[in-house]
Amino acid sequence: MSASERDVPEQPCGVGGVAGVSMRDLLASCAAAAAVSLPPRVPLPEVPRVVEEPRREAA
């Protein structure tokens, strides 16, 4: 065994940076963080409704 092979620490395959946290919990925490860190949405302006009255024609 060479010196470079002994210097590499063994890591189990498939282990990411966050161990023991399910993807569902991780996504839920991200959604909660976004909900509390963003300001509320500005309400959309109301579009005035135009009501057309029936036209009266001369007899």
Explained architecture:
This protein is mainly α. It is 34% helix and 0% strand. It contains two helices and no strands. The longest helix has 15 residues, at 23-37. It is rod-shaped, with a radius of gyration of 31 Å. It starts with a helix and ends in a 22-residue tail after the last helix. The model has no long low-confidence stretch (mean pLDDT 77).
Which geometry do the CA atoms define?
Answer: rod-shaped
Main beta sheet: none
- The counted number of beta strands is 0
Distance between the termini: 108 Å
What would the average pLDDT be, to the nearest integer?
A: 77
Outline of the structure:
The chain is mainly alpha-helical. The chain is built from two helices and no strands. It is rod-shaped, with a radius of gyration of 31 Å.
Keywords:
single chain, 2 helices, mainly alpha
Secondary structure elements and pairings:
Elements (H helix, E strand, L loop, with lengths): L2 H5 L15 H15 L22
